[in-house]
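Inputs:
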Amino acid sequence: MDTEMKSFSITPVEAGSLVTPKGFSAAGIHTGVKRYRLDLGVIYCEVPASSAAVYTLNKVQAAPIKITKDSIAQEGKLQAVIVNSGNANACTGKRGIEDAYTMRKETAEIFEIPEHYVAVSSTGVIGEFLQIDKIINGIKKIKALTQVKFDAAERFNEAILTTDTINKRACFQTTIDGKTITFGGAAKGSGMIHPNMATMLAFLTTDANIEPEWLQKALNQVIDVTFNRITVDGDTSTNDTVVVMASGLANNVTLTDAHPEWDRFIVALKTTCEQLAKKIARDGEGATKLIEVQVKGALNDEDAGKVAKSIVGSDLVKSAIYGTDANWGRIICATGYSGANINPDTIDISIGGIQTLKDGMPIPFSEEEATQYLATENIMIYVDLHLGDGFGKAWGCDLTYDYVRINAGYRT
Amino acid sequence: MDTEMKSFSITPVEAGSLVTPKGFSAAGIHTGVKRYRLDLGVIYCEVPASSAAVYTLNKVQAAPIKITKDSIAQEGKLQAVIVNSGNANACTGKRGIEDAYTMRKETAEIFEIPEHYVAVSSTGVIGEFLQIDKIINGIKKIKALTQVKFDAAERFNEAILTTDTINKRACFQTTIDGKTITFGGAAKGSGMIHPNMATMLAFLTTDANIEPEWLQKALNQVIDVTFNRITVDGDTSTNDTVVVMASGLANNVTLTDAHPEWDRFIVALKTTCEQLAKKIARDGEGATKLIEVQVKGALNDEDAGKVAKSIVGSDLVKSAIYGTDANWGRIICATGYSGANINPDTIDISIGGIQTLKDGMPIPFSEEEATQYLATENIMIYVDLHLGDGFGKAWGCDLTYDYVRINAGYRT
C-alpha cells in the first residue's frame, strides 16, 4: 500500500474522519437500547450522494439489509445512514422488517428527505425485537446533533461499536483534475455482542464526483482485496454491510474508468478501506496482535489471496503467533489446503525478516530472534510460491485465551 | 447409525480391535524417536489383502503418502502397514522420500513379502528428517512382536498416537452369505505433536472377501459421511491417511454392488469408520465435549452435510458450547453461511431436546434446562431446514482454553 500511496500521491489526514469530505455531518446519541454507551448514529449529506453498498453473503440476512438494498436500488442516492447498536434486528421476522422501515421513515421525516435516500443498519443481539420507541425518540433528537461539529465523527463511531475496544476511522486525500478529493470512513469490527456474533459495518464518505454505477464498480473491486481479506474467526455475520456515499462537492470531472485519474480514485478508496480493515482485524476479539500475510509468486492474484486468507484464518497459525512460536510448518500446511495452485517444492516462507523455509525445505534460523519478533504487535508473514506474478494480502489476529473467554461467556 | 445397525444386524464387539478380523496381527515398539512412548507400529496380514486408501487433500503431502500410493497402485494388495509417530517425514524433500522407501524395503525384507505389499505412514514433527537408523532397528525387531497376541492391538494403537489422550479403536460384526464378517479399526486423531499440526490416521481391517476396486469404491462412499465429517480446527494436515485391508478369510461370495448384501457391507464399514471418527472428534485438542450436529430437511444429503459441518466448525458455536451457552443465533448464522440452499424462514433448531428456533424465529425456552444439558459431555444439535429429504451428520468438539494453551505452547 505504501508504494501505491506514494506513486499515486495519496496522503493520510491525521485528524480526518468521515465528516472531512465536503458535504457530510454526523452524530451519535444514547437512546437507552444500551445501558450506558451511545447506541444510535447518523451520517448526513447536504446533497443526495451517489451511493453503493455490499452486504454479507450469509443467506440469513438481518432486516435492515433489506431496507438499505431497497433504498439504494431506487436511484443509487443516499442522504442519510441511520445505524443502531445493541440489537441486530436479525431473526425477527415480519416485525423486524416493519421496525427497520420505521427507522427509515422517521429518519426521512426528521431530515425532510425522501425515504429512499435513507439507509438503515443494525448490530448487536440476534433474535430480539428492537426497542423501536427508544430508537424513534433518538432519531427525533439526532438531527439537531448533526449541527454540532465538535467530536461528531467520534460520537458516530462510538455509537456503532459493540465489544470493539477502539474507535476505527480513516481519512485520506488525493488530487483529481487539480481538485482535492477527500475520503473518510468509520467502521465497527469483530467484537461480539452478547449473545451473538461479530458484525462488520463500514461507512465511507467522499466528496468525489462519480455516478452510482461507477461507485458500485469501484467498491466491488476494492472490497475483494480489503474487507474480504480480513478474518477473525471465519464466521460471517447476518448484518455485515459496507456503504459508500459520494457527495460530488469536490467538483472533479465525473469519474468513470475512462477518466485519466480513475486508477488514483481506486487506490485512494482502497487505501481507506484497507486502513479500516486492518483496524478491524487488529481489534478482533481477544486479539493482542495484527497479522498481515503477503503472498507473491502465485499463478494469479486470486490464488495469492486464497493462500493469504488460508494462513491468516488458521487457528493453528493464530495460536502459534499468540504463543510467539515461529511455527512455519503450520504456515506451509495452510498454504497446501488453501485451494490455490502451489508446488510444495518451490515455497519460501519468512516470518518478519526471518526466512524459515526455502524451496519447501526448512532452513536454520535463530529461534531467539524469531521469538523476539513474534512478541511484537504487528506480525508480517511472507510467502513466495515462485509460480507467477500473482500478489495478495490478508489480515487477521492471534487466537488467545481471551477469545475463548469472551465467546464462552454465558449471557448475563 | 443405531437404527441402521439394527436393521442391518450389525453388532459391536466390545473387546474387539483391528486384529479381531481373521488373518491380522499387529505390534507396537519403542525405537527412540520419541523419548518414552511406543513410536513404531505394524499391522500384518497372513495373506495379501485387498486394499484401498484415501489421503489428505492438502497439496503439501508428506513423503510416506507417495510410497503408500505407489504400493497400492501396483496390485491393490497389502500385507503390512508400517507406521511411525514422533516425526511426520513432511517437508523433507528427496531425503524424506528415500527414508520412506527405506521403511518400506526394510519391512518387506523382515516379513519376506514384496515391497509393494507394504504401506508406510508417519505422524509427528514436520520439517525434520527421520532418525532412520532407529526406525530400521525397530522394524527388524517388530516381526517377532506380531507373534505376541496379548495386547497387540493396544500396543499398535499406542504407537501411532501423538498428543491423543486415549487409544481409539472399533470393532463390529455382521453376517454376509451366512458367514461372520468382522471389521476392526484403529485411529489417531487431532492431537498436535510439537511443533506441528494435527494428523488423522485410520487403519481398518476386515476379513470380508472383496476385490480392491470395490473396496476403494466402498471406502470412498463411506469416508464422505464419516472421516470427512469431523473437524477439530479446520486445518487439514499433510499426512492424513485412511487405509483399509480385507483379508478375504471369511470366505463370503466376493462382494460387489451386485451382491445382495452389499448394503450391509457398506453400513458395517460405515459404522466402524463413524465410531473411529467420533472418537477422534471427542479427543480433539483441549476438548471437553463431543458435539454431534444432525441436519434434516435439506434439499439433498450434500447440503445437509454442508450445514452440519459449518455449524460444528464454527469457533463461535464451539466456544458457546464450552461455555454452556445455548447460543442458537450462532447456529443459525453458521447455517446461513454454509453454502447450502436454505430458507431463513423455515429453519428449526433444537439443542438436545430443547427447541430454540422455529421457522427462523426464536421461541421461549428454559435457559436453566439448556445450561444443564450443555454441561454434559455429548451435545446434540438438531437442525431442520424443511426444504426436502436431505440428511447429514457431522462431529466436532468444543473450543477451550486448553486448545489455545496446547497450540500456543512454545516448542521445547
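Residues 308 and 394 of chain B are 5 Å apart (CA to CA). Flag for discussion at group meeting.
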